Amino acid sequence: MRYLKTLLAAAAVVATLSPLATFADERVQLGPRPFFLVEDMAPSALKKALKQCANGPFYKTRFSIGHRGAALQFPEETKQSIEAGAKMGAGILECDVTFTKDKELVCRHSQCDLHTTTNIMETPLAAKCSVPADMGSATPFANVQCCTSDITLAEFKTLKGKMDGANAKAKTVADYLKGTPSFRTDTYAGNGTVLSHKEFITLAKRLRVSMTPELKEALVPMPFDGMTQEMYAQKMLDEYKEAGVDPRSVWAQSFNVNDILYWIANEPEFGKHAVSLEDLNTPEDVVAATARIPGLVAQGVKIVAPPTWALVTLNAKNKIVPSDYAKALKAAGLKIITWTLERSGLLKDGGGYYYQSVTNGIKTDGDTMVMLDVLAKDVGVIGVFSDWSATVTYYANCMGLK
């Protein structure tokens, strides 16, 4: 009962806020999905509290972080995807940063994913791919690899973003491009506008959102044409400085802790918000990550970002609760961001990678909200990456999270 009263009180506070906030001259629009998820929840105090917020108001919040924009339905890292994430209330938007042949920074999740995330295979630029299609093979696209470092920025800008996916067993280019996962859609993938990092900054400023650039691993030998890893890390932040962006609005991140330490030492104003990403795939990885915590703290790291599954577990009653790893992060005084909500298919089968530690406690899509509630209230994360920002925005607005 006390829990219900607390939740209802939070909802009541939100209900007294000013009318619908505008976001870059547009109202925040959540669409039907958050409401669907709430209705899909099993009866509970949380469900009752969330239903109290159905009429808003809805406003942007930094707790809601647009993962590659709105990658559930829009081609990731594109102008359209970033705009969709912002319209759904994400207060922080992501650009994964890599570089082209002429060492210009662009938004791509991987340096070598152009063959699955753009239309490069149906353009003349396919001939420039690191590993082009072998049309003399029975499976000509099995080993294709097309990298941003294969082409110049001008060439990159001629490409169109598409939903990530490909059919490696295809015999033709047309069939190869048909690989979108079933839980996504190609409905908005007709004209994805790819972005340079500078264009992303300009767009984010127009949308009035904070930015979380992720320095991606170089998949070519470094130094690259004279550019060292340190120069690469510095160049990313220099583009924010050149654009006059307040460092407090930039959450630079990397899976390479040496990038984080470089920013802390050389760009301390940006280093305060630098996010050390944790690539955890197995329980053994979590054990190793727990052992790393004291070292991270000693080196000045303030924020870590593990995947959702590593922060939760199930108790004896099959209820989702914080993991020992999550407790250790909090005990060490580290702030926590997590990834990635809404990046799974239907949850009736357990949720896959992002729910692997709580699979037996996941029954329906509505459990997305249960997971989110535990991450926010019990683990204490300060932000959640999502492929569909509206879900996190709805929850955060309802609970008064800024």
Task: Walk me through this protein's architecture.
- It is a single chain.
- The protein is α/β, with parallel strands linked by helices.
- Helices cover 34% and strands 14% of the residues.
- It has helices spanning 2-15, 33-40, 45-51, 79-87, 114-117, 153-156, 173-176, 197-207, 229-242, 257-266, 268-271, 283-298, 324-331, 367-379, 389-398; strands at 22-23, 26-27, 61-66, 90-99, 105-107, 160-161, 192-193, 210-215, 253-254, 275-277, 303-305, 312-314, 320-322, 335-341, 383-386.
- Strand 12 and strand 13 (320-322) form a beta hairpin.
- Helix 1 (2-15) runs parallel beside helix 3 (45-51) and helix 4 (79-87) packs parallel to helix 8 (197-207).
- The protein starts with a helix and ends with a helix.
Can you summarize this structure?
The protein has helices at residues 2-15, 33-40, 45-51, 79-87, 114-117, 153-156, 173-176, 197-207, 229-242, 257-266, 268-271, 283-298, 324-331, 367-379, 389-398; strands at residues 22-23, 26-27, 61-66, 90-99, 105-107, 160-161, 192-193, 210-215, 253-254, 275-277, 303-305, 312-314, 320-322, 335-341, 383-386.
The proportion of residues forming helix, as a percent range, comes to: 25-40%
Low-pLDDT stretches: 1-25
Average pLDDT rating: 94
Name the structural class. alpha/beta
Portion in beta strands: 5-15%
Distance between the termini: 25 Å
Order of helices and strands: HEEHHEHEEHHEHEHEHEHHEHEEEHEHEH
- DSSP E strands, number: 15
Radius of gyration: 21 Å
User: Describe the biggest sheet?
Assistant: 9 strands, mixed
Total helical elements: 15
Shape: globular
